[in-house]
Amino acid sequence: xDGGVKSRTRASSTDGAGDAVVAEDRTQKRYEVAGNGxxxxxxxxxRDFTVQTDLPRSSGxxxxxxxxxxxxxxxxxxxxxxxxxxxxxxxxxxxMFHGLRAHYTAHRDQRGALGALPxxxxxxxxxxxxxxxxxxxxxxxxxxxxxxASQEIRPETEQRLRTLEQQTHARxxxxxxxxxxxxxxxxxxxxxxxxxxxxxx
Length: 201
Description:
Layout: E1 9-14, E2 20-25, E3 34-38, E4 41-46, E5 49-53, H1 68-90, E6 97-108, H2 111-114, E7 132-143, H3 158-171, H4 173-180, E8 184-192
Parallel strand pairs: 7-8
Antiparallel strand pairs: 1-2, 3-4, 4-5, 6-7
Helix pairs in contact: 1-3
């Protein structure tokens, strides 16, 4: 979720005289990455950042970086955090969202990747799904403790927490892709932080 960020893509066509006409589609956000793979390892360039992945030695890697699926779960947390901040900012009255802490566990059927061997042709697919079967865990929502002079902390309700949760799930691109793939995310529980709980930056 990129709340407040305006993104543009360019589409070209020709007018009657054959000259190129460039139109901007402000409804579409464009992402672009480039990378190289070296067996189990990969290195990807994303704007000014470098992202690396690897597999544990037990899976044929060298254990120098997180697994791709672990980065997917990290992306889910990052996307939900940014989306929740956007949703809270646009709720009426505004929810004084400070941050969230998530702990997720994911499961998949390994037969979806390792089954149907040896591979003899392009159609020898395993019968099991290769994607994540389910993601479960907990999301703890932390509210702002020190509002600005123009803001006021109001007691929050479970109903408003459900609004934050449901709107975040609906608007988060990563969560939407996981659900569309058939991943069961119903085992994720959202709650407000207790008074003694703290969140680290």
